[in-house]
C-alpha cells in the first residue's frame, strides 16, 4: 500500500511539473494560479514546495544544456542523471525535460 501511495504522489508531482513547464497561451497565467486550478485538492504549501523542486529541475536542465546537452550526451545519460536527482519524474516529465534541454542547447548555442 505504501509503495502505491508513493507512486501516486510521484505521478501527481510529475503531472504538476508538466503544468509548470507548459508552453502556449496558458503560460501567461502565473504558475501558482495554474497549479492551484489544476490541483485544487493540493494545499498551497505543497504546491509551493513543488515549485521549489521544479526550479531545481530547471537549474539541472540548464547545467545539462551548458555541458553540451543532447549534442554530447545521450537521452539515457540524461534520464539517469535526472531520475537520480528527481526520482518523482516519470517518462512524460523526463520527455518534457529532455525537450527543454534540447531547446536550451540549440537556442543558446551550447
Shape: globular
Fraction of residues in H or I helices: over 70%
Largest sheet: none
Mean pLDDT score, rounded? 92
Residue runs with pLDDT of under 50 for 5 or more positions: none
Q: Work out the strand percent.
A: under 5%
Instruction: Tell me how many strands there are.
Output: 0
Straight-line N-to-C gap: 45 Å
Number of domains: 1
Radius of gyration from the alpha-carbon trace, in angstroms = 14 Å
Q: What is the quaternary state of this protein?
A: single chain
- Structural class by secondary-structure content: mainly alpha
Query: What is the succession of H and E elements?
Result: HHHHHH
Number of helices: 6
Strands, helices and their partners?
Elements: H1 2-20, H2 31-38, H3 44-66, H4 69-72, H5 75-85, H6 91-108
Amino acid at each position: 500500500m505504501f509503495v502505491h501511495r508513493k507512486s501516486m504522489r510521484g505521478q501527481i508531482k510529475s503531472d504538476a511539473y508538466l503544468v509548470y513547464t507548459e508552453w502556449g497561451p496558458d503560460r501567461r497565467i502565473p504558475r501558482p494560479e495554474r497549479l492551484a486550478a489544476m490541483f485544487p485538492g493540493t494545499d498551497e504549501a505543497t504546491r509551493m514546495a513543488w515549485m521549489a523542486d521544479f526550479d531545481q529541475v530547471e537549474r539541472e536542465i540548464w547545467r545539462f544544456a551548458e555541458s553540451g546537452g543532447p549534442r554530447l550526451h545521450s537521452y539515457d545519460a540524461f534520464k539517469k542523471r535526472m531520475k537520480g536527482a528527481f526520482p518523482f519524474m516519470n517518462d512524460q516529465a523526463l520527455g518534457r525535460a529532455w525537450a527543454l534541454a534540447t531547446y536550451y542547447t540549440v537556442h543558446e548555442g551550447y
